TrEMBL record:
Biological source species: Aristolochia fimbriata
Protein's recorded name: aminodeoxychorismate synthase
Primary localization class, coarse: plastid
All residue ranges annotated as the Glutamine amidotransferase domain in the record: 93-254, 285-332
Keywords of this entry: Chloroplast, Folate biosynthesis, Glutamine amidotransferase, Multifunctional enzyme, Plastid, Transferase, Transit peptide
Pathway the protein acts in: Cofactor biosynthesis; tetrahydrofolate biosynthesis; 4-aminobenzoate from chorismate: step 1/2
Length: 943
């Protein structure tokens, strides 16, 4: 009876991959969320059946064993010449423990191994399928077990990894962080709390010179500094005889600043080229188990098995700030090649069931694993598989053959008093409803260059509004979409596959000529402008939303007419799109009111040059409100509650559930007919920012006034992805001297550096899922940027997008921005949902554009006022790490809310003053008409 392997899925079924070649084609793609899958073996009669389990002999590499063990292993002479070229490409199975750094390892191994690894989650494959791929198909040469949240003592945290470590003695395995702890736990060591949690901080490492550290210096002042992310460790005193310590911290208190390191490192690559003598592993492995220093134990940082090619390191070699991290992976590759070379030419690996008997607690561990497997608990997170090009799955909609026309007016911005006057002139009438303004209001230090603005009116204009269908349905990402066109017609539909899938189909339906926008110095030439709310995380891997947003979960205009301001030289561009299938219809719509749109807007802008520009200025006195700005808002959480929630975060971090948690809350206040455009103008004046934005959606009673300094993600015309996370904030000083002191304080803050580094590594991971191997790099690490009210610590991560992926694939891989979640992202979002009392809504999401030419630019929604149905809300928060002080975190949250709250209170104060004066005039007129002399004020009438 013949056997075949099929892939069972909740959505569709495909033939399983039987060969390494087909496996390789499937894994050369990053991740997006997909339904949970399992592999099922089916015979010709359609019956489910396990795979064959015949295996051959075992060979162990001498190079990874101490001398006394080598004599027990004999092997046939390997014909090295025949296998040399084949072995230079190493095939790795990378097991992802739902971590946010796994794809940093993926990127390193892809370039080092000569082929990208296969990535699976720790609960994605059954043991039978794993066994089939490893021993029947012989698809992999080694295994790397990733970091991850939680503990190896919890079956749902570690999945299949313990069984692999126990039963697969004949394949090289490298465990990182959680994988390192799993190696110790699988063989009987105890997992305990570290003396102190260490996340995103540097330590110097001493090692014993074994093959894994070949060519890497050791000890204090050697230059071997590593990044650590862990709260748990292996108890070194509990190590069984078969596990040998190979690395440990060189001192107890050496969590140094990155200031000195930054000047010496080429980011993303090892820079130290010094080498040390490669002592024989046979001698070095017999050193004392746990070296002491100054009467105190160092922390165990590495172990290896005495008879198996199994290694573990507690630190993170894949971190951007770890020295010699790439060298460690290169050494693991050489260990694998040497092991294969010294094995039999007819190498057949075999699982040894007696491996369970070698562990003192093996019977209890096996019972726990079998019990866990039999009960089949649902995984904590949805299974995430390789990205397939979403454009290939598209059912094509009506084709949109877009044609772009544009004009340029030289140096206009400087002649009309700035982009604010341009917006007020063209789009500020009727309270600027249904308008947008992606506003680079801060262009200092070349942070931003272009602003984009526009409003309702073009023939292709439409508004799309999306709301998720359920606040708690784990499996559903569907929701309701409404589309209003330029004529005011509205149609609604249910999107079973969610909003991002719909938007992807829309973008892929556009057809255009690159010649149309050749010569334009910016990427946005028309398309979708709007926001993605934080709750759309359920379309990007999160299991659920614990709270329902009152605002839409996404809202966009399709923009066919727009104005672009180039702040570098003051040039202004006018752009207009039409559907080339129906050019006459578009033209007639534009000329109904006279001139075509391009000519009409050009005429208005030229008229503006001759106008008194002062009438477009709306100053607001800073003395309008005498009390502290945030006192006018009601905070969702009291001071005591926020402090207690920070303490809960610290407990999660101590227990290894997260490295960093970005805790937030909301402040709210009624608006009382506030002039919303005036509010935005005051906010941009008080707190100018490179990724500021104004969005007005009249039918949703929604207006967004954003002064964000942070870019989430951009894809430019050269297919380069860029993220610019901010972590680390401090207030500006009153005097120049105080301001400089505070800036330097932030620059050298170990806590803020740790916050920033954790998010940098997280975003390297997110970009690594969708970028070409070896292309992800960090051109700027922890630079301090200064804004009107705060100094911030900013990093820049870039990478080259894979050609077969769409813009939406890139967004899906990285949303929500890691600076608003923490790391690991999935576990952190789940924990934050349990702590926060309401949906974040627009806050923590992204505002920006998706251009029809397949580029996009999105910010992180922070420093923002959201006005919805007469209520203004401001979200604020901060990253909680092991070094956080609960009271300080509360004060930092208030600092971040202060600028938008102050801007709001000033404008509302002016609005109330005008209303008060208007009522006074009305009352005076009324009394005068009755022949009564006015006494006092009309305060009683207003009450």
């Amino acid at each position: 009876m013949k056997m075949k392997l099929v892939l069972s899925s909740s959505t569709h079924e495909n033939p399983c991959l039987h060969s390494w070649k087909s496996l390789q084609q499937a894994v050369d793609k990053p991740l997006v969320c997909k339904p949970s899958r399992k592999f099922v073996y089916v015979n010709d009669l359609g019956q489910h059946q396990p795979p064959k389990s015949n295996v051959g002999r075992v060979r162990i590499s001498r190079s990874v064993m101490p001398g006394p063990v080598q004599e027990f292993y004999k092997g046939d002479k390997y014909r090295q010449e025949e296998a040399s070229s084949r072995l230079r490409t190493v095939r790795t199975l990378l097991i992802d423990n739902y971590d946010s750094y796994t794809y940093n390892i993926y990127q390193e191994l892809s370039t080092i191994n000569g082929a990208p690894p296969t990535v699976i989650h720790n609960d994605e494959w059954t043991w039978e399928h794993f066994y089939y791929c490893l021993y029947e198909e012989k698809a992999f040469d080694n295994i790397v077990i990733s970091p991850g949240p939680g503990s190896p003592t919890c079956p749902t945290d570690i999945g299949l990894c313990l069984r692999i470590l126990l039963e697969c003695k004949d394949i090289p395995i490298l465990g990182v962080c959680l994988g390192h702890q799993a190696l110790g736990y699988a063989h009987g060591a105890n997992i305990i709390h570290a003396p102190m949690p260490v996340h995103g901080r540097l330590s110097e490492i001493q090692h014993n010179g074994c093959n894994l550290f070949d060519g890497i210096p050791s000890g204090c002042q050697s230059g071997f500094k590593v990044v650590r992310y862990h709260s748990l460790i292996i108890d070194a005193q509990s190590l069984p005889e078969e596990l040998i310590p190979i690395a440990w911290t060189s001192s107890m208190d050496n969590h140094s600043s990155f200031a000195a390191l930054k000047s010496d490192m080429v980011l993303g690559h090892d820079v130290y080229q010094c080498s040390v003598g490669n002592s024989s592993i046979n001698e070095q492995c017999l050193k004392p188990k746990y070296p002491k220093k100054d009467g105190e134990s160092s922390v165990l940082m590495g172990i290896m098995h005495s008879t198996r090619p199994h290694f573990g390191v507690q630190f993170h070699p894949e971190s951007v700030a770890t020295c010699y991290g790439r060298k460690i992976f290169e050494n693991f590759k050489e260990i694998t090649i040497d092991y294969l070379r010294k094995s039999s030419h007819f190498h057949d690996r075999k699982v040894h069931n007696w491996a369970w008997m070698q562990v003192s607690h093996s019977s209890q561990l096996l019972e726990k694993l079998q019990s866990s497997a039999s009960s089949k608990p649902q995984p904590t997170y949805p299974v995430v598989g390789p990205v397939v090009n979403s454009s290939l799955r598209i059912v094509q909609m009506n084709k949109n053959y877009l044609k772009l026309q544009w004009k340029k007016i030289d140096n206009l911005e400087n002649r009309v008093g700035g982009s604010r006057n341009i917006f007020c002139k063209l789009f500020g009438g009727q309270k600027a409803i249904d308008t947008f303004w992606l506003d680079s209001s801060s262009t200092d230090q070349k942070r931003a260059r272009f602003s984009f603005m526009g409003g309702k009116g073009g023939s292709l204009w439409r508004q799309i509004t999306f709301r998720l269908s359920s606040e708690s349905d784990v499996s559903s990402t569907g929701g309701y979409l409404s589309i209003e066109d330029a004529q005011g017609s509205v149609r609604s539909m249910f999107l079973e596959d969610g909003f991002l899938d719909f938007l992807n189909k829309e973008l892929q339906s556009f057809h255009y000529s690159k010649e149309d926008y050749k010569g334009l110095p910016f990427d946005f030439c028309g398309g979708y402008v709007g926001f993605i709310g934080y709750d759309l995380k359920v379309e990007c891997g999160a299991t659920c939303n614990h709270h329902k947003s009152g605002t839409p979960d996404a809202c966009f205009f399709f923009v066919d007419n727009l104005v672009v301001v180039d702040h570098s030289n003051g040039d202004v561009y006018l752009l207009s799109l039409e559907n080339n299938c129906y050019p006459n219809e578009a033209l007639s719509a534009e000329t109904m009111n006279g001139l075509p749109w391009l000519d009409k807007i050009e005429k208005q802008l030229l008229e503006l040059m001759a106008t008194d520009i002062k009438k477009y200025t709306r100053p607001y006195s800073n003395s309008a409100i005498g009390t502290r700005s945030e006192e006018g808002f009601v905070t969702q959480k009291s001071r005591n509650r926020y402090v207690k929630d920070v303490e809960k975060c610290l407990k999660f971090i101590k227990d290894g559930e997260s490295y960093e948690l970005c805790l937030t809350t909301q402040m709210r206040k009624r608006t009382h007919d506030t002039d919303l455009l005036a509010l935005y103008l005051n906010l941009r004046n008080r707190n100018p920012a490179p990724y500021a934005a104004w969005l007005s959606f009249a039918k949703e009673s929604l207006c967004i006034c954003c002064s964000s300094p942070e870019r989430f993600l951009r894809l430019d015309g050269n297919e380069i992805l860029e993220a610019k996370p901010i972590k680390g904030t401090i207030a500006r000083g009153v005097t120049k001297e105080e301001d400089e002191r505070l800036r330097l304080q932030l620059m050298h803050s170990v806590k803020d550096q740790a916050e920033n580094l954790m998010i940098v590594d997280l975003l390297r991971n997110d970009l690594g899922r969708v970028c070409e191997p070896g292309s992800v790099h960090v051109p700027r690490l922890m630079d301090v940027e200064s804004y009107a009210t705060v100094h911030t610590m900013v990093s820049t991560i870039q990478g080259k997008k894979k050609l077969n992926l769409s813009p939406i694939d890139c967004v899906r891989a990285a949303f929500p921005g890691g600076s608003m979640t923490g790391a690991p992202k999935l576990r952190s979002m789940e924990l934050l949902d349990s702590l926060e009392d309401c949906s974040r809504g627009v806050y923590s999401g992204s505002i920006g554009f998706f251009s029809y030419n397949q580029t996009f630019d999105l910010n992180i929604v922070i420093r923002t006022i959201v006005i919805h149905k007469g209520v203004a809300s401001i979200g604020a928060g901060g990253a909680i790490i092991a070094l956080s002080n609960p009271v300080d975190e509360f004060e930092e949250m208030k600092l971040k809310a202060r600028a938008p709250a102050k801007a709001f209170m000033e404008v509302q104060g002016q609005s109330e003053k005008r209303l008060f004066s208007h009522c006074n005039r009305l009352v005076s007129l009324k009394f005068c008409s009755l022949g009564v002399v006015k006494l006092g004020t009309c305060g009683g009438f207003l009450g």
